[in-house]
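Milestone M4 deliverable, item 7.
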Amino acid sequence: MKKLSLSLVVFFAAMGSTYAQADKLLLEAQRKTLLDAKKKADESVMKKDSLKAKTWLTRAEAYIEIASSPDTNTTKLEPLAAIKAYDFLKKAASLDVKDGKEGDVAKTAKKYLKVEYNKEGKPEGEGQKLYSAFMNVGVQKYQAKDFEGALANISMASTVNPKDTTAAMYTGVVGQMAKNEAAAKEGFERFLTAGGKDPGIIYGLAQIYKNEKNDEKAIATIERGIQLNPSNKDLRNEKINMLLAMGKAGDAINDLKALSAKEPSNSQYLLNLAILYDNSASKYDGQISDIKQKLQQNDTESAKKKLQDQKDKISAFDEEIKRLTDKIKKDPKTAASSKKQLADVVKMRDDQKAVLEQMNAEAAKQAASAVNVADLTKQLEELTKKQAEDRGFAAEYYKKSLAINPNDFDANYNMGVFYFNEGVKIKGKVDSMDMKTYQKDGKAIEQSAISTFKESMPYFEKAWEIKKEDDLKGNLRGLYNVLKQLEKSEAYDAKLKALE
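Output delivered:
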C-alpha cells in the first residue's frame, strides 16, 4: 500500500500545483463573483420562488462553481458546497414533475447527477462538472489532512461517475487513511466493478477481507486479481501465503506446482515446495507418537509378560523366605543373623507385591479403556506412509532447487536440518532400546544414524560458507559433537575448534 499512497500524493500534488499557478488577483475577483452569486441564490429560496425548480437548480449551479474553485480560501467559506449542490439538484428534479412527467429543469438537474459519456467513451456534460467539483474539494481536504472530508467528497464523485476508476480507487485509499474500512472496501469494490485491475488495489481489498476474517472473500479477491494480472508474481505469492494461513497447505502446494511448471528454472518455487512438504511431514509426528503410545499401553501380551515376570520375582522372594525360615529352625546358632536377613527379604517381597498390585490396577484400567488395536495399527501405517511420501517429496524438491542454485543459503540450511532431524529420529530408536535389543539390532541402527547425520554435514558446511549465522553455528557444533560421540573419534575436534 505504500506505492498507492505515494501515487495518491503525486496525483493530488499535481492538481494542487496547477491551481497554485492561477493569478492571485484573478482568484480574488472570481471569489467575489462566486460569493455574490451564492448570496443571491440563497436569498431567492427564502422568497416566494422557493418552490420553483429553477430556483434550486440555479442555487445548485452556484454552489458547484464554488466547489470547483482552485482557491481554497473560496471553498473554505462553504466547505460542503459540492454536497449541498448535490442535494439542491435532487430538490430541483423533484419539484419539476407534473402528472408523472419531468420538465426541462428536472431533466437538466438529473444530467448533473450522473456523468454521461460520448461516442468516444469520454465523460462530458453537466455530470462531469459536479464530478470535478467533488474531486476538487476532495483534493483540497486531502492536502489539508482532513481525510474524512476528503473521503466524503471523493466517494460522492464516484457516485456521480460510477464508471470512473480514479474516484473509486481514491475512495478506497483515502478511506483507509480515514480509518474507515467499510468505505475503503466499497471504494475498492467499485474500482474493480468499473474495470480497474491495479494489483496494489486488489491486494489492499484482499487484506481488508482478511482482517475481517472473511478468508473465502479474501482468496476470491486475490484470484480475481490473478485473472486480471496473470503475470503478477506478488498476487500469486500472496494467494499461497493466504492458503497456508488458512491451513490449506494442499491447495498451496498445487498452486506452487502450477507456478513451477510455468517457470521450471525458478529455484525459489522449488524451495518453497520442499519447505511445504517438509512442514507437512513434520505435522504427522504428533499423531504418530500418540498412536504408538496408545498401542504400547494396550500391548496386552507385553503386559501379561511383565505381570508374570513380577509374579516370578515375588515367588523367588517367597522361596528365599522359606529357605531362611527353615534355616532358623535347623540352625539356632545363626538364628539371629538369619532373622535379620529374613526381615529384609520379607520387606523386599512386600514391596514387590505392592508393585504387582499397582500393575494389576493399571492392567484393569487399560482393559476397561481398551482401544481397537487393529484400527490404530492401520492408522499408524497410513500416517507413516504419508509422512514418508512427504519427506521424499521434500528431499526431491530441495535437491532440485539446489541443482539450479547451489549457493542458496536457505536451501542448503534446510537440507542440512532435514537430514539432521532424520538422524535424531534414528538415534532415538537406539537410545530407547534395552540391552538385549541393543545387542541384537543396536549397532546396525546406530550405523544408520551416523550415515544420516553425515548426509547433513555438506549442506550445513556449504550454508556456513555462504553465511555465518549463529543458529547454523549451533547446528554444526551439535552435529560434530554427536558424530564424535557415536564414532568415538577425535576427527571432529579440528572442525569444532574452527567454530570457536
